[in-house]
Design a protein that fits this description.
alpha+beta, Thiol Ester Dehydrase, Chain A, six-stranded antiparallel beta sheet, 2 helices, about 15% helix, (3R)-hydroxyacyl-[acyl-carrier-protein] dehydratase activity
């Protein structure tokens, strides 16, 4: 059962189609951890070129999907609500499994550190019980720019 829908996610983070990758949030413990879901479908625009005849989700987009889940966790904190979380660094990224159409990517993010306007999270993207990707991500949080 989803505790945050796609629309609620878009109300919190600035990402929009075609680069809003989180379908729903399964679990959220504010300032601690989040589990979210990305349903990987053959209709994803990146599969047209990556790779014809052997569609594989690009590693950089798996990291982006993890970063979006981390943004939700960070921005649900009262001190960062209505702000924007920017990816500042990627450490210890490891890719262990190809993600293909039909896979359900479960994103697990744990908050490790928060200092004034930055945060450190540990992340894992799983397909079933297998780790597809893991990484430590560093975030910088800034005021959200107003629409003009």
């Amino acid at each position: 059962m989803a505790i945050m829908t796609a629309q609620e996610i878009m109300d919190l983070i600035p990402n929009r189609y075609p680069i809003c990758y989180i379908d729903y949030v399964d679990e959220l413990v504010p300032e601690e951890k989040i589990t979210a879901t990305k349903n990987v479908t053959i209709n994803e625009s990146f599969f047209r070129g990556h790779f014809p005849g052997n569609p594989v989700m690009p590693g950089v987009l798996i990291i982006e999907t993890l970063a979006q889940a981390a943004s939700i966790l960070i921005l649900k904190s009262p001190r960062f609500y209505k702000k924007t979380a920017y990816l500042g660094a990627i450490h210890k990224a490891k890719f262990r499994l190809m993600v293909k159409p039909g896979d359900i990517l479960k994103l697990h993010v744990s908050l490790k550190k928060v200092r004034s306007n930055m945060g450190v999270v540990e992340t894992k993207a799983l397909v079933g019980d297998k780790v597809a990707c893991s990484a430590e991500l560093i975030f910088i949080v800034a005021d959200r720019k107003e629409k003009i």
